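=== RUN LOG ===
request id: a7f3
mode: sequence -> structure
chains: 1
length: 153
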Amino acid sequence: MQLTEHLASSIEALYNGKPWLDVTFREHLSRIDARQAVKSLNGSNNIWQIVNHVIFWHQRVERYMHNEPPEKDGDLPDFYMPENHGEENWQATIHRLEHSFDQIAATIRKFPEAALFDTFPGIDKKAVYYLQGLAEHDAYHLGQIVLLRLYNP
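=== RESULT ===
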């Protein structure tokens, strides 16, 4: 198995598969409604903000992979919290998250294996640093979502 396939599969598993940590985004987000998504605990970011943060980083790394600027006009800011806290908007955010997982996994699969240890242009880190880091980042924030859901119902 190529490393790009391994990384893409690892990221997909965190959304809706069988990851090593035995919980998924889909599993937990399907149990969260808009009311719960906006609740924070002791000043923490809320689940909605965390979901938007994960989307933000998927988008950023994908742009690095395409040698594009990491941010563009019209992008939502990191940890974005919309003014509309309605259920329909929450479901749209979850849909955006699913799309971002599908998109980043597809882009990683197409990324040249030989370029994994090359530095992204204009950035002082190798591609593999960001791609492996994205899987770790997603797992970390999934843990936050699980804890917020369980301890802040």
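=== NOTES ===
The CA atoms of residues 28 and 146 lie 7 Å apart.
The radius of gyration is 16 Å.
=== END ===
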